[in-house]
Backbone:
């Protein structure tokens, strides 16, 4: 069971993420997050003494949620072969349909130094290892990952993002790719 302090920390991180999704990253201030969370600035500073630590917390929080969702989806998949690829596809599809919180995490990472991004990179690497050992052709698994990365970067950078119907067809094709025998 989460402690009261941990619950408050999660509430702050969820509020900060929601603020960024509703506004912009450049508008993020400690005051704005405190207001969004319905707490005092002092209450926020207790958990996050400065903006850099808040940004790091946002990125880690998002990627922890993504990793947990990814694992839960894979473990609930009755088909063993390709389950990690399908979990990546499904979790990414859900995220992109719901304002792409991963984009917020990636943007937060881009504002941090390389040392702070190391843990997130290792988390993503652990996902990639699972994809490579998923029982489908590793090149197919890599292609699935790269297509998903491309969808995210297109959305994040607002470079010719795809219409939702075309994006849905791409996800359907990616799911099909996990079903083919190697």
Residues:
């Amino acid at each position: 069971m989460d402690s009261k302090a941990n619950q408050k920390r999660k509430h702050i991180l969820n509020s900060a993420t929601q603020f960024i999704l509703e506004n912009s990253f450049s508008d993020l201030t400690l005051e704005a997050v405190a207001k969004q969370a319905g707490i005092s600035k002092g209450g926020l500073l207790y958990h996050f003494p400065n903006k850099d630590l808040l940004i790091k917390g946002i990125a880690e929080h998002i990627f922890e949620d993504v990793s947990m969702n990814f694992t839960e989806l894979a473990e609930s998949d009755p088909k063993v072969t390709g389950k990690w690829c399908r979990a990546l596809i499904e979790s990414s599809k859900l995220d992109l349909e719901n304002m792409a919180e991963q984009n917020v995490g990636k943007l937060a990472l881009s504002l941090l130094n390389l040392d702070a991004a190391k843990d997130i990179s290792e988390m993503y690497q652990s996902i990639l290892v699972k994809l490579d050992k998923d029982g489908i052709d590793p090149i197919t698994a890599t292609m699935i990952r790269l297509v998903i990365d491309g969808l995210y970067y297109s959305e994040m950078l607002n470079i010719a993002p795809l219409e939702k119907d075309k994006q849905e067809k791409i996800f359907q094709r990616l799911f099909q790719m996990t079903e083919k025998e190697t």
Notes: Residues 9 and 46 are 9 Å apart (CA to CA). The first helix runs from residue 4 to 22.
